[in-house]
UniProtKB/TrEMBL annotation:
GO terms for molecular function: proton-transporting ATP synthase activity, rotational mechanism. Belongs to the eukaryotic ATPase epsilon family. GO terms for cellular component: mitochondrial inner membrane; proton-transporting ATP synthase complex. Gene3D superfamilies: ATP synthase, F1 complex, epsilon subunit superfamily, mitochondrial. Pfam families: ATP-synt_Eps. This is Uncharacterized protein.
Length: 63
């Protein structure tokens, strides 16, 4: 059996933990660049009559 499974982790959780550890081990400025890539931006567009509106709304969290 794989060691991450024996530790009670799913593969996705294992990869997430490992990736976070690697990012924290990097020296600057590589760390700053790696941390930028972890941010996720969600936007919402309103549609009217089959056309997109001009406004984009930034969504802080997905529920």
């Amino acid at each position: 059996m794989v060691y991450w499974r024996e530790a009670g982790l799913t593969y996705l959780k294992y990869v997430s933990v490992a990736s976070q550890a690697v990012r924290q081990a990097l020296k600057e400025p590589a760390r700053a660049e790696a941390l930028k890539r972890t941010e996720i931006l969600f936007t919402k567009r309103e549609y009217k009559d089959g056309k997109t509106g001009s406004d984009r709304t930034k969504i802080e969290s997905v529920q």
